[in-house]
Amino acid sequence: MARTDEEAVAAADDALYVLTAVLLTPAQFPSVLGDDYPEACAALGLAPLADGYGLVLGQDGDGARWTVVIDDVSLVAVAIASWDCGMEYELSPDERAVVAALPGWPLAVAVAAPGIPAPHDPAPDVVDRPALSPPDTSTWGPAQRRLGADEIALQWAAWRGQIDDEKFSVPRGQDAPGGQPTPDGQEKPEAQDNPDRHEQDEESSPEDRQGVPQSGHRGVRRVLAEARAYVDSPPPLGRVRSSFAPGDARTLRADGPGWSIVARTDDIAFVLLDDEPGEVLPVGRGPELPGLLDALDKMAVRPM
Predict the structure, then answer these.
(1) Full strand arrangement of the beta sheet holding 53-59
(2) d(CA 37, CA 26)
(3) For a surface tag, which of 208, 230, 239, 253 has the fewest beta carbons within 10 Å of its beta carbon?
(4) Nearest to 63 by CA among 20, 111, 117
(5) C-alpha triplet 296, 301, 303: angle, nearest 5°
(6) How many CA atoms lie within 13 A of 174 on its CB side?
(7) Which of 58-67, 167-176, 213-222, 248-257 has the lowest mean pLDDT?
(8) Residue 67 in contact with residue 55, Cβ under 8 Å?
(9) What is the pLDDT of residue 277?
């Protein structure tokens, strides 16, 4: 007979060997789980509480994988900060803070607890719900796209160093306001000499070219227009996030249906699209991008 949720919580909490922990809050959540905070919560069957959760990933005494959800976000934040500094920290949530114990792990974990069986999902007769498993990132799609954006945000200097600002250029046949750079010259130089590409660019209506940074890439134009629409009609919580960056800048992250943007408020932006497998499309700063990034930053959620 499957255990009740309360029994599963008690069983996982009694003998949980903690391996890692992550935050699930509007400003900081595993983006592989969704484009926004409510979507990430839904992947775990959780209500999107305003204060968020802490996710503690570990194994029980039999080696089974468990994700213990707690509402003590500060405790998990302190543990993560300590581990990041190379300090030991014993994460032992109070049972009163435990919201749920979910079988399985929603994220890939590369370590295992010593001295117990290898990680495996709890037996079906122990739980009354399917075990969590990480999203499939073996092929290009939303999860892989969001992971790619995460990597750019973490390694901004390395990615930015590959971009030669002089390589940005306006495709022939299209006048971008103020000589606005476009991504085509960097990622796909051959696109500038592709008549079909130019014809597609010219098919866009004048409305598509108003109020957003211009680009010779039709998909990027759509993304920038949708990002601009967020300013007037706020999207679900967490779709636009702002975090620390050197100097007075902020690292800006925005996601939407089929796309992700990573930008520095004092620099350029990178766009990733579900429709462009593996491509990273830089968008030059020009006269329009700074205003868009500033507007998005003002509405973005920020870590506490």
Answers:
(1) 17-24, 53-59, 65-70, 98-103
(2) 5
(3) 208
(4) 117
(5) 135
(6) 27
(7) 167-176
(8) yes
(9) 95
Residue 194 corresponds to which tokens in the numbers above? 């592709």
Q: Which strands make up the sheet holding 259-264, listed edge to edge?
A: 240-244, 250-256, 259-264, 269-273, 281-283
CA 283 to mean position of chain CA atoms: 19
Whole-number percent of the chain with pLDDT over 70? 79
178 secondary structure, DSSP code: G
Token pair 């696109």: residue: 191
Element (H, E) at 292: helix 289-299
Nearest in space to 253 (alpha carbons), one of 181, 135, 151 = 151
Q: 262 near 249, Cβ under 8 Å?
A: no
Task: Report d(CA 247, CA 262) in Å as an integer.
Answer: 17
Q: What is the structure's pLDDT at 216?
A: 61
Look up the pTM and report it.
0.79
Q: What is the pLDDT of residue 167?
A: 64
Q: What is the mean pLDDT of residues 259-265?
A: 97
Token pair of 103 as six digits: 């079988």
pLDDT at 217 over 70: yes
C-alpha–C-alpha distance, residues 88 and 83, integer Å:
6
**What pLDDT sits at residue 168?**
62
Nearest-CA neighbor of 208 among 194, 178, 229?
A: 229
How, if at all, do strands 98-103 and 240-244 pair? unpaired
For residue 249, the number of C-alpha atoms closer than 13 Å in the C-beta half-sphere is 16
Q: What is the largest CA-CA distance in the chain?
A: 69
